[in-house]
């Protein structure tokens, strides 16, 4: 039952059927393109071609090419992508606004700050930091569940007058599970009842040893309200980013992840996409989750129209045929026929997810097409 035709497998791998047949012959399995092969053989073949079976999430399966891993010499430094997490009311939104506010240059051409789900700030040395504007661990875990590991650094906000709370601990656990480095922003230090040292001690109980306690997790005392020490926080992020040596190849077709999406009455589906590698350009044919389309226009976090967006740059994309979901992967494909094909396949996986109780595993993905 767990079988797939060579033709179908070739299609999903983006390889020529004839090449698969040739490989199968070498592997001692002489078959024609219309015959079925079992799952083990299919998996061998996938490996043979340097592809990997990518479980986008527990209930979604896709095949991606591993042969298109970017060569070291094509990689260039890219800005870090930061998510702010912490307990409700500890100041996540205030901190995001304060950081952004301090960075908006008045009089900038068309410089109207626009909420697109993410924004970039520039440091004095002109290096940049990308902030995801959707704080909270839900957004972080939702995206991770969908296979979109976009966050490079987590800033954990802890109110100095309140200490560690349940959502702080959840955020710590999610960050650890994701293996993402953390910086602690001890907020609300303007308050007379602020006890930053108590926060550091409480963090010890969760194996977070901050620098002030002799550890290597950077901690910065801030006040989002009074805009105190925001520069130090940005410097801490920049330092952490330097250690991570974040790089991507900007000179290839773009791949990215949806940060948020909505339907706009006048402009149709809008998706804020964080480019992860390559450069996204107006005119590119794209598949985003189960939606496809052509990039008609792109708008940056200042409301300006842009023609292209490179790694770690967030842009709002116009031109999709449907509204995707946060965490969906954007892929640039060679033409519209291919876009529809990929989108239809992904839609099929989604439909199946909805109509069957059993999660779509690799096994039933193959059974499904037999
Ligand atoms: P969030 O739920 O984590 O996004 O927290 P908010 O940013 O909405 O802040 C919750 C409350 O704390 C609001 O009333 C803010 O004005 C206040 N707040 C945030 N940061 C500071 C700060 O640095 N100092 C003081 N005194 N209040 C703050
Ligand atoms: Mg908030």
UniProtKB/TrEMBL annotation:
Keywords: Cytoplasm, GTP-binding, Initiation factor, Nucleotide-binding, Protein biosynthesis
Superkingdom of origin: Bacteria
Binding site for GTP: 86-93, 133-137, 187-190
A molecular function GO annotation: GTP binding
Subcellular locations according to the entry: Cytoplasm
One cellular component term from this protein's GO annotations in UniProt: cytosol
Keyword presence, Mitochondrion: no
Domain named Tr-type G: residues: 77-245
Family membership noted in the UniProt record: Belongs to the TRAFAC class translation factor GTPase superfamily. Classic translation factor GTPase family. IF-2 subfamily.
Task performed by this protein: One of the essential components for the initiation of protein synthesis. Protects formylmethionyl-tRNA from spontaneous hydrolysis and promotes its binding to the 30S ribosomal subunits. Also involved in the hydrolysis of GTP during the formation of the 70S ribosomal complex.
Descriptive protein name: Translation initiation factor IF-2
Originating organism: Sphingomonas edaphi
